[in-house]
Write a structure and sequence with these properties.
Blueprint lengths: L10 H16 L2 H12 L1 H14 L4 H4 L3 H7 L5 H10 L8 H12 L12 H20 L9
Helix pairs in contact: 1-2, 1-7, 3-8, 6-7, 6-8, 7-8
């Protein structure tokens, strides 16, 4: 099985994830936009691949994974992750800067990212939706500040 088909929460991914927090804290929107494109744009492509595989009834990549990884791939979103998706698309949200943190918060999932082995297809789809809205926010506003929940 190709490693590129499944997103592993390995040291490389965690390093990029932790760099994302640093970039968010710097409040440099052009830098954040470029960082997201460079380091996380692959999630969009993988999401499209997953949906095509489902439409073609072809999930061999997942079936060939070992049992532990197959189990992780079946993991649904947490309640908190659903809230992060909702938060990123809330039309009443006055503080759009919260949207920019939604992607990081979605993946972080109350530190659960550090116990997970792979990103489930549900997480790939959810993070793709949030990323799309983050890009829209980056185009609209000029400052990034994290507000405490």
């Amino acid at each position: 099985m190709e490693k590129d088909i499944i997103i592993y929460y390995d040291k490389e991914f965690i390093k990029k994830f932790e760099e994302l927090k640093t970039v968010l804290e710097e409040e440099d929107r052009p830098k954040l936009y470029q960082f997201l494109l460079k380091e996380f744009q692959f999630i969009f492509k993988l999401n499209q691949y997953y949906w095509k595989q489902i439409a073609d009834n072809n999930g061999r990549d997942f079936l060939e994974a070992d049992e532990e990884i197959r189990h992780e791939l079946m993991r649904p979103l947490s309640h908190r992750q659903y809230r992060m998706i909702e938060r990123s698309f809330s039309p009443w949200l006055e503080e759009e800067d919260l949207v920019l943190w939604s992607f990081w918060d979605f993946l972080h999932d109350n530190e659960r990212i550090y116990q997970k082995k792979v990103m489930s297809p549900a997480e790939v789809g959810g993070s793709s939706m949030i990323l799309e809205n983050v890009y829209s926010c980056l185009a609209r506003k000029t400052s990034v500040k994290r507000k405490e929940k």
